[in-house]
Amino acid sequence: YNQGEKYSRLLEISYKNDKNNPTFVKQTCYGLTERPIGASFLQFADERGLVVPPKICPIHVGIICFKKSKEIEKNCLELKKRIERIGLKSKIFFSSGKERLFEITEKQGIPLRIGYGPKEIKNGRFEIYNRVINKKINSDINQLSRDIQNEIRLIEEFLFKKSGDTIEKHISESNLKKNILSNLKNQGVSK
User: Over 80: is that where the pLDDT of 42 sits?
Assistant: First the structure.
């Protein structure tokens, strides 16, 4: 959206041109506000809560700590650091046994979660749950970064395909005015 000099005049934002004369700056605006994010939520939410695409989600991985101890807390912090080293954001959720942390992460739209407790320390393995595709995979500390990146890629591919399928479902071929109006009434698009 071209705003021209409208706001630069109002705010007195100028620079000196080649002739050393003050000149108001020309401004543009992309207009990206809440609408595209809201549309994304409408497109991808399900009965369990939000499904936030990885490129815009504030948290990529929820780390669920089943028991609070110094050792588990230390290991969870190390997991968080590993995840952040690959450019993803994570949050640690400490369980007191009463919260339903799996449901909380789903409602918040966190695409992946890892449960961590005494069993995971003993076995040296983690279960990564992909909330979007509803899939569990087992990983170990050496493969964790690769597995998380792979799951994020699968989520992006799945959501992109789902979006494309939804668009195709609502587009129909029409050359008659009454068919075009009918498509519009049914929230479709005519081509």
Answer: no
